[in-house]
Every structure is written in C-alpha cells, then in structure tokens.
Amino acid sequence: MLNQLTTRKQYDEVKARVEQLIAEATQKGMLEPDMDNDYTREISLLSQQMATYEDEYLNVLPLRQKSPLISMIEDYFYTHGMKQKDGAKLLGVNESQFSQIMSGRRRISMSFAKRLHSKLGINADLILEYA
C-alpha cells in the first residue's frame, strides 16, 4: 500500500478504492458509527492519504467552521421554532442584514451585540470573543 500519493492517477485510484470499500461496507452493515473493522481502518488510512494529497497538490480549501456565536443564535431560533425572518425582527434588523451577519459577510455591531445579550440571553463574554 502507498504511504504518500504523489500523482493525480494515484489519487484517483485511491478515491475509487475508498468508494468501493464504502459501498461494500455499507452493504454488509460494517460502516456503522464507532465500528472498528478492516473496512473502517482501510477507509481511514486511504482518506488520510487523499487529504494529504489534496492539501499539497490540489489547493482544496478547508470548510469554514461556524462561529460558536452563530451556532448559539441558530440554536436559540431552532429551540423556539423561529425562522430567520422572525429572528431578524426580534433583533431589530432587516432580513438581509441578518442573513449577512449569520453567514459571516457582515460584522456584528455593538448595538446588535447588546440585543443578542438582552433578547436572547447570550453570554456577553461569548459575544465579545466571537463578534
């Protein structure tokens, strides 16, 4: 087995092998969470090799991780059965501004941060750290 992928051909072969393993393991019921077997170990090893190749040769950007503050706002609205437009209204901004804030395209203003604290009860330290 290869330790490091250095060509696109090797990468494509490993990718095809991973897809084959996933299909076989799924069919046999061997790909459940927390399972440790030959399938899961080989898939893990090959996936790590693919990730290293992607980092070094393909310039694949990592997924953006959602801010804990944004996650907390989303959790609040979910638990209260609110839609984004309801949240915007509650927090005193228009839907467009709220959408931009939630997607990270607009910074959180001081007045908006205060409303997060007073209306949603979000911890001020969390707001200061992630706003």
A few lines on this structure:
The chain has 7 helices and no strands. It has 131 residues and is mainly α.
Properties at a glance:
131 residues, single chain, 0% strand, mainly alpha
Topology:
Elements: H1 8-27, H2 38-58, H3 68-79, H4 84-91, H5 95-103, H6 110-120, H7 124-130
Helix pairs in contact: 1-2, 4-5
Note down, in words, how this protein is organized:
With 131 residues, the chain is mostly helical. It has seven helices and no strands.
Coarse morphology: elongated
Give the strand content: under 5%
**Tally of strands:** 0
Query: Topology as H/E string?
Result: HHHHHHH
Specify the structural class: mainly alpha
